[in-house]
Amino acid sequence: MHMLNEKYPNDPAMVNNSQITNEYLSYLISIGPCQPLPSNMPGKMFPKRKQNNIVRSFNDSYYYKILPDKSTVRRTWVSYSPSIDRVFCITCKLFGTTKGKRNTLSRKGTNDWQYISTRLNEHESSIDH
């Protein structure tokens, strides 16, 4: 785990909101969200696990939203945690409203890979995001 922290200082699972200084916040903003590629991960892939008898994993395509015209835009708010294999909304975690900071994506992240596209789409169109 310690090695991952050094490689991913912006791992959202390691960000403790109650201990954020202005300097640390500025640092996190400057390096951006944690968005490793499979080639950066141990074994050159995201961890796999069985969900409803199907082996699933995170995919780096979730860092992007596909627009109606089929073009893509980067989701700079999506932050993957290599230490716990979960996705967070780093924007809500760091800057969210009181309600926004309580939502699952900012508090504990999600690893529901079966419904991740739905969760991300719902979150980015929510009022609190």
Per-chain topology:
Layout: H1 2-7, H2 22-31, E1 48-51, E2 54-57, E3 64-66, E4 72-74, E5 78-81, E6 86-89, H3 90-95, H4 98-102, H5 104-107, H6 116-124
Antiparallel strand pairs: 1-2, 3-4, 5-6
Can you characterise this structure?
The chain is α+β, with helices and mostly antiparallel strands and 129 residues long. It has one domain. 31% of the residues lie in helices and 17% in strands. The protein has helices at 2-7, 22-31, 90-95, 98-102, 104-107, 116-124, and strands at 48-51, 54-57, 64-66, 72-74, 78-81, 86-89. Strands 1-2 form a two-stranded antiparallel ribbon. A two-stranded antiparallel sheet has the order 3-4. Strands 5-6 form a two-stranded antiparallel sheet. Strand 1 (48-51) and strand 2 form a beta hairpin. The radius of gyration is 15 Å and the shape is globular. This is Zinc finger, TTF-type. It comes from Cinara cedri.
- The number of strands is 6
* Helical proportion, percent range: 25-40%
Alpha-carbon Rg, integer: 15 Å
Q: What is the rounded distance between the termini?
A: 30 Å
Mean pLDDT: 90
Number of helices: 6
SS class: alpha+beta
Series of H and E elements: HHEEEEEEHHHH
The largest beta-sheet arranges its strands as 1-2
Give the biggest sheet: 2 strands, antiparallel
